[in-house]
Amino acid sequence: MMLSFMLTDNDNPIRLCRHCTKAFVANRPSAVFCSPWCKNKYNVYKSRSKDKKE
Q: For a surface tag, which of 2, 19, 26, 43 has the fewest beta carbons within 10 Å of its beta carbon?
């Protein structure tokens, strides 16, 4: 029942992490990563792929 409330709650929506694709409850409306570790890893991989293209 709590899961159904969390899925429909607009203040704290459940999202999928952009890096690891785990489900998490977003504390902020703009949150796209489940942790600072995932955010850092995503940015490292993104930066390294840019370097390979150039």
A: 2
